[in-house]
Amino acid sequence: MVLAAGAAPDYLGPVAALVIAAAAIGYLTARVRVVPIVGFLAAGVLLGPAQLGLVEKSATVQAAADIGVILLLFTIGIEFSLDRLARVWTWIALAGGLQLALTTGAGLVLTLSLGGSWREGVFTGFLISLSSTAIVLKLLGDRRETSTQRGRLSVAVLIGQDLAVIGMVLVVPLLGPGGAEGARGVGYLLQAVLTAVGVVVAVLLVARRVMPPLLDVVARACVPEVFLLAVVAVCFGTAYLTALAGVSVSLGAFLAGLIVSESRASTHVLAEVLPLQIAFSAIFFVSVGMLLDLGVLLDNAGLVVGAAVVVLAVKAVTAAVAAAAVRVRARTAAATGLLLAQVGEFSFVLLTVGTAAGLSPLGRQDGSQLVAATTVLLMLASPALAAAAARVDRPVSPSTAPGAAGEEEVVDGHAAHRDHVVIVGSGPTALDLAETLRQRGVPVVMTTLDLDGAAVAEAAGLVVVRGDPNKAAVLRAAGVPNARLVVVAEGGPEQAFRVVSAARLLTSAPIAARPLGEADVARLAEAGADHVVDADHVSAQALTQQVLAVLGHSEPAPTPHRTVVDTVRVVRYPWPVTGGCTHEEASRPVLARAPGCVACLRAGGDWVHLRICLSCGHVGCCDSSPSQHAREHAHVEDHPLVASAEPEETWGHCFVDGVTVPAPATPGAGARSAT
What we know:
- By secondary structure, the protein is an alpha/beta fold.
- The chain has 25 helices and 15 strands.
- The chain has helices spanning 12-31, 36-47, 59-80, 82-87, 89-113, 118-129, 133-142, 149-175, 182-220, 224-244, 249-261, 266-289, 294-299, 301-324, 330-339, 346-356, 367-392, 428-439, 451-459, 472-477, 493-504, 518-527, 535-550, 598-603, 629-637; strands spanning 421-424, 444-448, 463-466, 485-488, 511-513, 531-532, 564-565, 570-571, 590-591, 610-613, 619-621, 641-644, 651-654, 659-662, 671-672.
């Protein structure tokens, strides 16, 4: 639809209010060290139709929320992988099935005790048996606990619940007045369940063979837009196909993620889709918050809080018992119970289906409102429950349960590296550097978007993370937060700038990069690079060394009376504005152009101390030296500011104003001390 100038679609205002409120309240909650999910839920409560009424529960908001759930489950599937799913399949069947049976039974008993019918009791049990897949997986991902034992056990139970939703949606209408159709209803149910299971198995078998090579072909095109569209097509296409078979869309999205996890481009896929997932999943949590009517909550505060406490206790106990049944330690079972103690988003779907069939939760007329308020209240409590679970489940020793792993296991194997070197690139420079480091016993992880280069590196026995190194998710997968050094070995200046900027946000370790020109040095330094290796300069130095060797001379070396400047460390000297000098704008990050005073070397002379020009990196001798080349350069080039290159001196000097200023923070000269 083409909009006239100044016209705005009806949905734009509410969507803008929703996103702005989510960002603002999410920021405030993050500042007080509360997980953003609480802020998103609170934003929904504030904006919803029952409070300020700025945003109605429109089809547009619901569609965006559904997309958020699909993308969230898709990314979790990528991180989980089919192999890990196979290792916890017994947990899905045993723990998942037992948790559903126990919680449904508790709901039945509770309803019967309140005077409701057994049909309404089963319906109530179904409603409270489901936990929030979206919230639990989001919390596990944010806390980096997806692959802990309680995390994997929780995911297994959640998968079992999502599979059970297929049958619940078909059973609930049969529980309503006049809904039972005897054998015909049971036969329809069995047929639907078998069809759904068959489609899931078929999707996994076919896609496991087709998807990895297909994604590799698309990734080789190196067109980000095409790759992202292909990934989104896989996600939504798979979810749609499974939905046609009666499987929940969320489970279909999770299956799509499992399929993609088999590809070597899975890290690249995760990095590309993550920004979309964050935006749309935030809208989902806001939409959940919009369901809470504060008026109903305040009018029935005691009843709602009491119901929430009862449901919390029932779910925590039944989930813990189910977890204990698969022989995990008691602490892990209790923590799993806490993680799964809320009521899930699919309960709203079942609630709609059951209401249409004439069923009421707990056999009460206000049962639907009571369940809705209790569900949102428990969702708001989920971050606190996750934190409590982490405190309860303190690691003692690795479990011997099937498929178990110690608490220190991480989602991505590369993140387990520590004190290693991350090399960005896969060309000759990167490969030579990686091989040199490996020969010296230094662990190396390479990351690149070039699939051919990655294949060569892997053939050489190197660890490679495939993906765009501009993305934080890829750098995390390469273990940048735990790295000893990050080296940007290849790529143009813009690429290097983006990679250095992204890496600096993840680590305080040194970062080395390679500029293509003098102008790139300052940009790379501002982005966070500590070392900048100028290829032309290095080549010139290598040539000089060879010429000197042929002539029987040697390069300048440190002596007790001579300092040699490090020519790859960036010299940063932010000139103090209040230092009494009017030339502070002349100071910028530079590389030393030479290890010593070139003019003195040409003349066969020597120097006492060295100074580095803060405008161009020229290295000259000090005023105490016979030739005073630093002062001469400053006068000829109109570069007034220098920094001392001596290892114990941390000051700068302005030749024009005659002012000496101490360094504001750390030494900027970057010299190697004499030995």
